[in-house]
Amino acid sequence: MTSCGRFRYWFAMSSPNPTGAREAVCGGGCRVWLQVAIPGASSGLCFPAFPSILGALGATGLGLTPVFILLPPSETKAPGGSGAPLRLESLHFAEQFTAIRRTLIEDLLALDDATMAQVLKLSARQRDEVAANRQLLTAATMPAIARYTGVLYDALDAATLTEKQQSRLMVCSALFGLLAATDEIPHYRLSGGTKLPYRDSTDPAPTMKRRWQEAMSQALAELAAADDLIIDMRSGAYQALGGCDDLVTVRVESVQADGSRKVVSHHNKHYKGLAARLLASAKQTPTTLPEAAAIIAADPTLSPEITDDRLLTLIVER
């Protein structure tokens, strides 16, 4: 066992896991558990240490990154990839999400091309997205953080972040749920606002919220119980897929000529990308909201304001 004060890590090759712990397997074949010490309690809370967390550990086990930055996906995605075809069991949160992920893929592939285009609200110029979905199970993959493109991801510039810095990032996907930056995924099209029909059913098509909310909320609550800080930069459609009371939401506002403020819409993605990069690349990992705000304030274009203990507002120039 190694310890960093609040967190205890159990490593074993064959011995029984700690009482109440759930077993996970790291890349080297060792079974790994993460036990969170609860002040004043006689025992801790145990759950698997995710590979991205394990990758952030130093040789002494003291390098845990106690912050996660939760990002939205993007409609636009990089093509191609060099990874092996999708293996749902290899993705993070496999225990919680594999059944949901598989059902969504099966329901999506059960649609004929015309119906899929209609359900996904694709224009005639976007019909190649249908072809991409048809290859979900056979296409090459790439890390999620490289797959997503667009305004937020341009500002994030994840390719220039180290592996440890990328381990602080997660993406919330309508098809896959929560993804680590390193999770290998194919090109696909499915949005948070889509109502995807059940295959072989006449029931009304359920929302992504209905499909994901219970499982994703539970997974986020478990993460929040083990981490000091989860910064939620998702858009409203993806926040609806699941959440918990301990997430810190980020809002972007601009100051108008009369001194009033206005919520920034499209360009909020750019500012969130800048803030996410600052937090991911910080030398001293923030463990509190004031520490996170101080790191973001290093960018002169961003003026972070702690609106309350679960809301961080980024004030930008109009």
From TrEMBL:
Task: Kindly name one Pfam family recorded for this protein.
Answer: H2O2_YaaD
Query: What protein name does the entry list?
Result: Peroxide stress protein YaaA
Organism expressing this protein natively? Corynebacterium choanae
Name a single GO cellular component.
cytosol
InterPro entries, from UniProt? Answer: YaaA
GO BP annotations listed: response to hydroperoxide
Q: Which domain of life is it from?
A: Bacteria
